[in-house]
Amino acid sequence: MSAKSSLSVIVAVFGSVLYVSIASGFPLTLSLDSGTSSLSMTGSASGVVLEEQGPGSLVTSYSGTVTVDVDDPTNPTSIQFVNAAATANNSGNWLPNDVLGTGPGENWTDGPGDAARANYGGFADASIFLIGTANAGIRGLVFDVTSSTMAVVGGGLGSGQTFSITTGVADLNFDAGLLGGSDIASSDSLAGETAVNAAANGSYSVAGNTATLIMPVAITIVDPNFTLNFSGTLRGSGPIFGDMNGDLVVDAADASLFVEALVDLAAFNSHGFGVDANLKGDVDQSGTFDTGDLAMFSALLGGPATASAVPEPSSMTIVGIAVVLALLCGCDRTRLADTGQGRNSLTERTPH
Fold it and tell me: Which residue from 32, 270, 323, 336 has the fewest beta carbons nearer than 10 Å?
């Protein structure tokens, strides 16, 4: 049997081994679409309801990422929010100034200074009660999002995620007004503040090779000088890895191609699929297409109904099988080294 025929047989057999491995969680990092992801802010400063400083000062778009773990990226029944960097974009120049100091315009007890870039800008007016006015600027706001494992039914998922502020400040200047009392000038860190999402249900869907998560948001952050309510929608999307033949479906047909790309990248490229194996094969999103992706690719396929009866191969077993494949297929040639076609981690080997 020729080396090429041997490769075909071994790859097919190993593809079957992959297919019966036990599934585990599958991570997806989704990029937030700033065009459709936005949160409005309401609330109060020093007990006075916040109003707009100007048109659009209490709403802004969000960018960044949300990472989730699903049991099946094409049709999940469970999802867990692992982390996020949902970053608020600046919506304009708002008061108070972003520098609290002692110089001109920086001592906010003498006034708010010049407007500066901010995510949100609120104005609280209690002058009718002779109490005074306040300007509030929210800057550098980034949310983390986590959860326990949640059910996905028909593409729908509940709320209850935990939003945690990783960075962000609330700048406030308060003029006590005619009744006197203490003026307030503060720049309070919001980092560490948390809230549970109480919004309506969200959704997870797949179109082609792209997964999309839509997450309605309704959270309340309580700070000593503020109560801040955020509401709106975050929408993230990203590619599903593992589609080795470019048909926009990840299924058993991709299994032998996955192993072939790992063992002999040149042979895989000769099929002419036009697929970057080192991108699509990096299913664990480690940045490298290597033997560490084998178990995760098996999880992506899901395996047959009897998969639970088949022991999952250890990482060392997987690596060992891959090495044997490389030796049997004559992969000591430089075609297995990184030749500029991608980041294949199997390096040149010389048989003894």
Answer: 270
3-state secondary structure of 77: coil
The two three-digit tokens of residue 312, written as one number: 């999952």
CB atoms within 10 A of CB 226: 25
Amino acid at 178: L
**CA–CA gap between residue 278 and residue 275 (Å, rounded):** 9
Quick one: residue 130, left, alpha or beta (phi over 0 = left, psi -120 to 50 = alpha)? left
- Who contacts 351 (Cβ-Cβ below 8 Å, separation ≥6)? 327, 330, 332
Interatomic CA distance for residues 160 and 201, integer angstroms: 9
Instruction: Dump pLDDT digits (tens) for 59-117.
Output: 999 999 999 999 888 889 999 999 999 999 999 999 988 776 554 444 444 555 678 99
Q: What one-character DSSP code corresponds to residue 47?
A: T
Whose structure tokens read 């396929």? 301
- Spatial distance between the Cα atoms of 144 and 219, rounded to a whole number of angstroms: 13
Q: Can you give the residue ranges of every domain in the chain?
A: 3-23+241-336, 33-233
Contact (Cβ atoms closer than 8 angstroms) between residue 295 and residue 24: yes
**Helix residue ranges, H only, 156-276:** 255-263, 265-269
Intra-chain end-to-end CA distance of the chain, in Å: 21
Listed residue (183, 259, 227) closest to 18, CA to CA: 259
Task: Encode pLDDT of 134-144 as tens digits.
Answer: 888 999 999 99
